Each structure stands twice: as C-alpha cells, then as structure tokens.
Amino acid sequence: MTWLVTGGAGYIGAHVVRALQKAGLTAVVVDDLSSGHREFVAPGTAFVEATILDGQRLIDTIQRYRVTGVIHVAGFKYAGVSVQRPLHTYAQNVEGTRVLLAAMHETGVGRIVFSSSAAVYGNTDLDLVTEDTPKSPTSPYGESKLIGEWLLRDQEVATGLAHTSLRYFNVVGSGYPDVYDTSPHNLFPLVFDALVEGRTPHINGDDYPTPDGTNVRDYLHVADLALAHVAAAQALEAGRPLERAYNLGSGSGASVRQIMDAVARVTGIAFTPEIAPRRAGDPARIVASGELAARDLGWEMRHSLDEMVASAWAARTAAVES
C-alpha cells in the first residue's frame, strides 16, 4: 500500500511521512514548497513538486506511484492571516481539496485521512468540545476546513469514499532535529526567533475571558499527531469502521502565558513577555476531548508541555547552529 501525503515537505507533513515509513508503509510526497522545505523530506522518499490545484499532476502522480490512499495535510493554515486573505485561503483549502478528490475519483483511490482543525468549532462557552459540538468557525481558515469535511462527506455519499478527519489546534515540538516549525505566524517559532535575536517575545492579547487573560489551546506534540494520522490510515486500509471526525485533544489545554513560562523554564532565558493587540479570528479557548480518538486510534498525549518545548527548542537551536 502506498500513501500520498499532500504537504509532505511541511513541518507536520514531514513528520507524518516519517511515521508512515517507520510503520512499514510507503509514502509519496506532493508539495509546492510554498511553506514546506525539500530538505524536510526523508532521503529516498518519492517527491513531486506540484500544487494540489494541478489536477493532472495529481492524477499522473497517483498513477505513476500506484497510490492507494491519501493523507491530505496541504493547505493554508494561518487563521489570523486568513481574515485578510480569505480568497487565497478558500482557493488553497477548498478548491485544492476539491481538485484532490476529483483526482482520487478519476484514479479509483477511495481512502483519505484529512488534516482538519479545531478551528471548525470557533468560540464556545464549553469547557470541553466534543466531535458533536456545534460548528461556528470565526475565520475563513476554520470555515475552509469545515467545508473540506463537507466535501469528504458528500463524496462518500456519491462514491463510497472511505474517510476520516482529524481536528486539532496548536502543533508544537519536534520528533527529529532536522524538522522544525518554520511558520512566521505560529507561537513557538515567534517566541524562539525573538529569543535567538535578543528580542522580547509578545502575547497577542491578555484580556480574553480565561483564567490568566490569554488564549487557551490544546498543544500537541507533532510526533503524537503524526502517529494519529498513521493509525487512521491503517484503519482505513484494513477496512475498519471509523468516525467521520476525531478530536485530537488534551482535555485540559494550556494558556499562552503558561507556554511562555515553560519556554523560560526550559531554555533558561528569563523574560517577561510584552502584551500586543489581539489577532483577528482568534477564539479565546478551544480545548477538545480526545476520548473517541483514544478508543479508535490509540490517541494519547505522550509528551509533557516541557518536553514539547524542549524538543522544539533543540531542533530550532540545531537549525541556527547549522
């Protein structure tokens, strides 16, 4: 069995590819390198530089490598920026998914694991969201991910597509010293860049209705997330029944201020973060239950917050030194 990983040269996708290979599965990567890095792709892995908006390239790749399933990680993933760039977000995340599904249908590939997002829930007063929590995304990014789930659902009705979607929020840490988060918008890279450059990290808003006034999120180690994608792929491959969506949540979450405290503790660099304005489209709190994923996918949080920070910092400092 061969799995096509869209976005497989990105931070998350590269971890998924290596987890697939460690599990004895074959991976093929399609990535346009708009935010991914060719060097993140493990040596010997088939790589095609292409956008998922190019349906013919997808068809050619699927046929050439005899792909039997897809893990769809590619997409524009920045909730705050999506508010300023809604059309770009929809083109990448909605049209890109439609084109991918069309290529899969054309080539007879009937299995897909979709990297969705907890952003589909938007703001909620619930202490813990479940898969049945009403969906009310607050950004074009969250909306685009929800539409992606709808596309899979409708294609299942039309063609019998086997699928599941994994909803998660902040992905951090590193499983390999040569793969790290390079996003210019994510919290960990922003904090680390500031520390490396001698600047003071900042918090976007401290007036949210949370215990310490800063956003509360699920923070997941990227290696744990990758294992969940592989478990979902293996389940689809074996024909086991899966829910249409799973939350990959911690059940407790952590605030941005708690993250800052952990960074200072792990790196040994003392600092007091500056307070900046809120980012548009950022919900106050999203913490999800991972109960269903634990039941069906063996999902669990295998890393503490300090371990997440430590692995991310080690990879970041290794990159600086190289």
Automatic annotation (TrEMBL):
Cofactor(s) in the UniProt record: NAD(+)
GO molecular function ontology, one term from the record: UDP-glucose 4-epimerase activity
This protein's UniProt keywords: Carbohydrate metabolism, Isomerase, NAD
Pathway participation: Carbohydrate metabolism; galactose metabolism
EC number annotated for this UniProt entry: 5.1.3.2
Domain of life: Bacteria
Family matches, as SUPFAM superfamilies: NAD(P)-binding Rossmann-fold domains
GO biological process: galactose catabolic process via UDP-galactose, Leloir pathway
Top-rank EC class of the record's enzyme: isomerase
Coiled coil: none
Domain (NAD-dependent epimerase/dehydratase): residue spans on this chain: 3-249
Chemical reaction(s) catalysed: UDP-alpha-D-glucose = UDP-alpha-D-galactose
Annotated family: Belongs to the NAD(P)-dependent epimerase/dehydratase family.
Protein name as it appears in the record: UDP-glucose 4-epimerase
Source species of the chain: Protaetiibacter intestinalis
